[in-house]
Design brief:
The strands form 20 sheets. The protein has an 8-stranded mixed sheet. The chain is α+β, with helices and mostly antiparallel strands. It is flat, with a radius of gyration of 38 Å. Helix content is about 20%, strand content about 20%. The longest helix is centred in the first third of the chain and has 26 residues.
Length: about 1300
């Protein structure tokens, strides 16, 4: 979309909420009965479902709709290829005002630009439409599709898809007719010469998802819309019951259907067209394909006669669809001054009981209005001296004026008044006894006007609310007036009292509501009205000095402040109304002020009582406020004064001097004057200085980019003492920061130096802030509301003050009163995480001052760039971790980027794309082979269940000898493992010790391998003699899996039983088949395999301990292990409701360690109720599951649990399981130590090599029976 154009920004009330609501109630309707010889009852049930959905939601989803998955996939692929082209290629088929079909990227909805690109193609090619929106213009024109050259199958894909979607649209139309009690084909005739079209939408990643929309709120003007959306989602529907925006969760292979305006009109409002919009995403692109089903251009739309009667009269006037559509299309190439045409403009209305109403079809020729509008605009466009030539005066109030007053306040407008009767006779004076009349004559004019921007507001009689009168195309607004005369006094002077009103003539002492209206002198009794306005507000100037007036006066008096270093008042400074400062501030006397003198007196601090008291004060301040002030802190006053003086000298320089040390995108240290907080510009200028020079920092926020960069200070030449004073001050602040950090550690019950190590290579900085006088202190902020991303902030503010803190107890903004010689301390986000929310980082902001400069110096104490930020209170449960805190990488925190992974593990995501991807076919599975189809009872459900109860275990203690030697910590971890194995058979582990880069290297190599052409992969295909290598036709439970794999053993070669026959003792060697490409594949695999083995032995030992066995009890079985690693690739699947990536199964091995990407898809059968539970991906976690072998060894104490893998119609998925398997000669049976008379052996002994050889028989053929399972060795006794 290029630069972020201001045209994309939605008005405040229409901006999206990033915290979305998903409603399960949006109907999901199965249309399969239409594709079979269904009974009448089934059809009636379907019709009822459709009617209910149309009436309650106006939206529903359909599945089993009959549109071939291959047709949709072909269209989606072609769409993506088209949008991936350069802009100049796409613009070769750009639409224009003559033909609106083709590519476009600057569409507006409600006059705000949409964050999207589109391609439109009509179904009927060519399509006939109205040439213009003028009612008397009968000319028509042709719409012709513009077909791009690339991709070459684009046209074919579009036309095939349009035909299939059209069939579905007619089916849906007939069902809707039946639901309205009409014949099924009642509406079909309107679509004989249809104007339907298909749109391909592409929503690029958007850096401002909270300000922009892919498509703004709107209703569809057609009859029906049939939408295919991808798995990213983003469609939001305004729920009719409460007006909430509801996110429509993507359902694989479903279509979303919504009622359009035309069906609302035809049904006479029984079915309503519902407002909807499309959200944008900052991380992922989104694609969708709506099909807009629209009738012939000559169709006259009105409520159907069958659905109207005396009790339910027609609610809409008839309108022509072609003219309606032509008017709508006016906004394609220009931003309109009014809202586009809507069906409510044709709503039948009765004149309201009030005094305002609008009229349409009024008989006034449109051309007459346009002529006078044009003439008026020409008049007002003249220089002021020309307009003043026909200025009105006290003798004749007709003509030009620019200083009208209403209710004693001047109006922001210029006007030109003309009498209808020329001349006109009127009383010469308002005095009751003056009978003289005057002749008022229109001035001579060469030009004359009126416009349609809107802005009229009417005070509603029922509740006194001001109601905006929305402009209606070609309508006139009528209102009943009071009459004239005394009103003209306001034209030439601002009155000290309210102008005359009819309320002055109201009779209070008789039954009649009104006196006879004569023009008496209104001075009598006027005092009682002196400070009233008819809308209830004071009008006399002294009582009208609201904050807005104060601000306006400040702007008028701006020249008295001298030149502001912020330049002109940029609208970017203006805060949203709800975040604007209150000029009347609150100070709280209870704001903590803590005396630190004990820490500077060894004798005093050695006193346990004094130490405990100070630590308690610090802890209470952090918990209750998150802010406190400190005095007697030990920092020499001279150091602060030197730094302040140097900063002031720097800021006093001309702007061009300061810009010589301006920061940039490569190095965020130096001077800056246009910083934004919450997307609003701050009223300040700053210079940032790193305490450690140079400071090492990540070069990028990308998780897989480990490159570092050096941030170096830009030292200004003037004043010459700036560097020295900054460095001396920074050294003193560091000492204070460490003292405070130690006190905070103690208050959390930690050793004093518990946190110090994180600051070895710290990223701390000092900022010098200058807040110039601000002419709009009620609209702007020095710094908008925010929380500090670092660990601690130490702030020195001057006597002007302005810091405000949001009080935790009630959310009020509290002004922190400057205390001489004190520093203000606040807890940052990092301490909030370290303390696991015991101490919270609190929102704060900085007010500006209209009269005085303000200076402050914050010190942001930040840890080393490589710090992994997690809670430090040892008894905290990791599952308390906030789900939304997973990754704060490279967030903009107080002006520069800080790399901090806010989770107890780094975020590892398998990217969905890589450079090689363009060279491989979308689906290596080729045609949909019937062998993929699961039996009905085993097919996946689209409505998945995610269970937060699947254990997430932190195994970091095993890497800390000090911690693991702690009996309590060891027992707790072993207990967690045992409980997880017993209740779930599955768990996830974090802080596992596997280096992130090892996983990333092997993921990258695997993807490169799978993205090769199939013939390259088949060069390392496995066979019946050696089951290692590439394979794409594996079966589970005799049904083919939707996946391709490559298997590599850990031991190379691996010895294995040559045959499954019991009496065959021959062995064979399995040798890895290493692909030539990518060249790093083998090295990446072997390094990763080594790390996996380390982890798996640790887990095996924890499991042994949880069974009451020695830690090494099971290790001996793995001397000549047959373990292997599998790389899985699950391509997008067009039949996600019928196939599985891997069918339901249990792992035959001892343990499985799985790395899955962010797409997810693993489902586990919950032991308690047999439900399939989706295992939600946890960044950088491994999923562990108990295999059949541990089930046998534990004699069923720990069970191997059934699991499967779902497929995705839009996204490919990758995973890497490590299967721990013993030597081929291992005889597997329950362990003797776990058996007794009450718990005898439940399994007969079996040979692992023979068991595995039997399993492998299904690799190359579909068996007639289920493959071998451990239950076949179950002892029946």
């Amino acid at each position: 979309m290029g630069e972020v154009d201001a045209a994309f920004i939605q008005d405040l009330e229409h901006r999206p909420k990033l915290a979305v609501i998903e409603a399960e109630g949006i109907p999901l309707i199965d249309l399969s009965v239409l594709n079979s010889a269904a009974e009448n009852g089934a059809i009636k049930g379907l019709v009822s479902e459709i009617g209910d959905a149309c009436e309650k939601w106006g939206f529903f989803q359909v599945i089993n709709h009959g549109v071939p998955p291959a047709c949709r996939e072909k269209m989606e692929v072609a769409s993506r290829k088209f949008f991936e082209q350069s802009k100049e290629e796409k613009r070769k088929v750009g639409r224009d005002e003559v033909n609106p079909m083709g590519y476009y990227d600057t569409e507006h909805t409600k006059n705000v630009r949409d964050w999207k690109e589109v391609f439109d193609a009509v179904v009927e090619n060519p399509s006939v439409i109205s040439a213009s929106d003028e009612p008397d213009d009968e000319e028509v024109r042709l719409l012709l599709n513009q077909w791009p050259e690339y991709p070459p199958n684009f046209r074919e894909a579009c036309e095939e898809y349009e035909q299939e979607t059209q069939k579905l649209a007619f089916k849906l139309l007939e069902l809707i007719c039946l639901s309205l009690g009409l014949p099924a084909n009642r509406l079909n005739g309107y679509f004989k010469d249809q104007t339907s079209f298909m749109r391909l939408n592409y929503y690029p990643k958007c850096p401002i998802p909270h300000l922009a929309l892919g498509v703004g709120r709107h209703k569809d003007g057609g009859a029906l819309t049939v939408l295919a959306q991808d798995d990213v989602g983003g469609l939001e529907v305004k729920r009719k019951s409460d007006g909430e925006w509801i996110l429509v969760k993507p359902t694989p292979n479903a279509y979303i259907v919504n009622v359009g305006d035309i069906i609302q009109v035809w049904s006479n409002d029984k079915y309503e067209s519902v407002e909807h919009r499309a959200m944008v995403n900052s991380e992922r692109e989104r694609y969708s394909i709506p099909f807009f089903f629209k009738p012939a251009h000559y169709t006259m739309l009105e409520p159907l006669e069958e659905l109207t009667d005396n009790q339910n009269p027609a609610k809409y006037l008839a309108y022509n669809w072609g003219k309606f559509m032509a008017r709508r299309n006016l906004s394609n190439f220009k931003k309109l001054d009014v809202e586009n045409i809507q069906i409510y403009h044709f709503k039948v209305k009765r004149a309201p009981s009030g005094v305002f109403f609008q009229v349409i079809n009024h008989g006034v020729p449109l051309q007459r209005l346009k002529n006078v509008q044009s003439a008026a605009k020409k008049f007002f466009d003249q220089p002021k001296e020309e307009k003043l030539k026909v200025r009105r005066d006290e003798l004749n109030p007709f003509g030009y004026s620019e200083s009208d007053h209403t209710t004693t306040v001047r109006d922001w407008k210029e006007v030109f008044d003309i009498t209808v009767e020329d001349p006109i006779l009127l009383a010469a004076s308002h005095e009751a006894d003056n009978m003289e009349v005057w002749e008022w004559v229109n001035p001579l004019l060469s030009n004359k006007k009126l416009d349609d921007v809107g802005g009229l507001e009417v005070k509603r009689k029922t509740d006194g609310e001001w109601v905006r009168v929305k402009p209606t195309p070609d309508a006139y607004i009528i209102n009943v007036g009071d009459m004239i005369q005394d009103f003209q006094l306001r034209n030439f002077k601002k009155l000290s009292v309210e102008k005359i009103q009819i309320s002055h003539f109201k009779e209070s002492k008789c039954n009649s509501k009104w006196r006879i209206w004569t023009l008496c002198n209104p001075k009598t009794g006027r005092d009682s009205y002196q400070n009233e306005r008819h809308d209830g507000h004071a009008s006399a100037l002294p009582n009208y000095l609201s904050p807005v007036m104060v601000l306006l006066m400040a702007i008028i008096g701006k020249k008295n402040h001298g030149n502001s270093s912020m330049g002109e008042v940029d609208p970017a400074f203006i805060q949203a109304p709800e975040h604007r400062p209150n000029l009347a501030f609150i100070e709280d006397e209870n704001f903590p002020l803590i005396d630190l003198s004990p820490i500077n007196s060894p004798e005093c601090f050695s006193s346990t009582k004094a130490k405990e008291h100070l630590v308690s004060e610090i802890g209470e301040a952090c918990a209750k406020w998150g802010f406190f002030q400190v005095i007697n802190h030990g920092l020499p006053l001279q150091r602060l004064e030197n730094a302040q003086l140097a900063a002031k000298k720097f800021f006093d320089q001309p702007k061009e001097e300061k810009l010589k040390v301006r920061r940039d995108e490569l190095n965020p240290f130096g001077y800056y004057e246009s910083e934004h907080t919450k997307n609003v510009r701050d009223w300040k200028e700053v210079i940032d200085i790193a305490v450690e020079e140079p400071t090492l920092m990540f070069a990028s926020h990308e998780a897989d980019n480990t490159e570092l960069t050096e941030w170096v200070n830009r030292w200004p030449k003037h004043p010459p003492e700036f560097r020295k004073s900054s460095e001396e001050y920074a050294n003193e602040l560091q000492k204070l920061a460490y003292k405070l950090l130690e006190l905070i550690s103690l208050s959390l019950g930690l050793p004093a130096n518990r946190l110090n190590g994180f600051f070895k290579d710290h990223t701390t900085r000092i900022r010098f802030n200058h807040y110039p006088p601000c002419p709009i202190p009620g609209l702007a902020l020095g710094v908008g509301r925010h929380k500090d991303g670092a660990a601690l902030t130490i702030l020195a503010q001057d006597e002007v003050g302005g810091l405000e803190v949001r009080r935790k107890t009630d959310g009020e903004w509290i002004r922190v009163k400057p205390t001489p010689g004190a520093y203000i301390i606040n807890v940052g986000d990092i301490i909030q995480v370290w303390s696991n929310d015991k101490y919270e980082s609190v929102e704060h902001r900085v007010m500006v001052n209209s009269e005085r400069d303000r200076f402050s110096i914050p010190f942001f104490f930040g840890p080393a760039h490589y710090t992994m930020v997690q809670q430090q209170v040892e008894d905290m449960d990791l599952r308390n971790f906030k789900a939304g805190m997973h990754n704060y990488q490279n967030e903009r925190l107080d002006g520069y980027a800080i790399q901090c992974a806010y989770c107890p593990h780094s975020s590892t995501k398998l990217p969905s794309t890589c450079p090689e991807k363009k060279n491989h076919s979308i689906s290596p599975m080729e045609e949909v082979d019937p062998t993929f189809i699961q039996a009905p009872e085993h097919r996946p459900k689209f409505a998945v269940t995610e269970d937060e109860g699947i254990p997430l275990i932190d195994i970091s203690p095993i890497y800390s000898p000090e911690c693991f030697s702690n009996t309590k910590a060891k027992e707790h971890l072993v207990s967690e493992i045992g409980e997880a194995c017993s209740k779930w058979g599955f768990f996830q582990v974090i802080n596992h010790g596997v280096p992130l880069h090892r996983l990333e290297n092997v993921q990258s190599a695997a993807k490169k391998f799978f993205y090769q052409p199939k013939e390259e992969k088949l060069k390392v295909r496995r066979d019946e003699l050696n089951s290692l290598g590439y394979y794409d036709t594996e079966h589970t439970k005799n049904v083919r899996d939707w996946k391709e794999v490559i298997d590599i053993t850990v031991e190379d070669p691996t010895l294995m039983a040559a045959s499954h026959e019991a009496d065959n003792t021959e062995v064979t060697e399995w040798v890895n088949r290493w692909p030539k490409y990518p060249p790093e594949f083998r090295e990446a695999f072997e390094e990763y395999a080594n790390e996996m083995q380390k982890l798996v032995y640790k887990l095996l030992e924890l499991i042994s301990l949880s069974l009451g066995l020695p830690a090494s009890r099971l290790n001996g079985f793995f001397k000549d292990q047959t373990s292997h690693i599998r790389f899985n690739h699950y391509p997008p699947c067009p039949i996600p409701g019928l196939a599985l990536g891997v069918g339901r199964h249990k792992d035959a091995v001892a343990l499985t360690i799985l790395a899955q990407d962010d797409v997810g898809g693993l489902e586990v059968r919950r032991k308690t109720d047999g439900k399939w539970i989706r295992v939600k991906p946890t960044p950088d976690a491994y999923i562990i599951n108990v295999g059949d072998m541990i089930q046998v060894w534990s004699n069923d104490k720990y069970e191997s649990v059934e699991h499967r893998v779902m497929v995705n119609p839009e996204r490919e998925r990758f995973s890497i399981p490590f299967f721990l398997s013993p030597a081929h000669y291992t005889m597997v049976k329950p362990l003797e130590e776990l058996l007794d008379e009450q718990n005898p052996a439940k399994y007969r002994t079996y040979n692992w090599g023979k068991f595995l050889a039997t399993r492998k028989r299904s690799n190359f053929k579909k068996l007639n029976v289920e493959n071998i399972q451990i239950y076949q060795f179950k002892d029946s006794k």
